[in-house]
Amino acid sequence: MRSTHDHGTTDDIGDITDATSTLSGPVTARNRRRLTAVAAGVAAALALGGLSTVSAHEADSADSARSDSARSESTRATVAGSATAARLFAETTPIGFGAGTTGGGNAAATTVTSLDAFKAAVTGDQAKVVKVSGLFSLTGQVDIGSNTTVLGVGSGSGFTGGGLRLKEATNVIVRNLNLSKPRKPSDAITVQKSTRVWIDHNTLSADRDHDKDYYDGLLDISHGSDNITVSWNRFADHFKGSLVGHSDNNASEDTGHLKVTYHHNWFSNVYSRIPSLRFGTGHFYDNYVQGAETGVHSRMGAQTLVENNVFRDTEVAVTTSRDSDIDGYAVLRGNDLGGAATEVSRTGSFTTPPYAYTAEPASSVVASVTARAGAGKL
Question: Model-level pTM?
Answer without folding.
Answer: 0.79
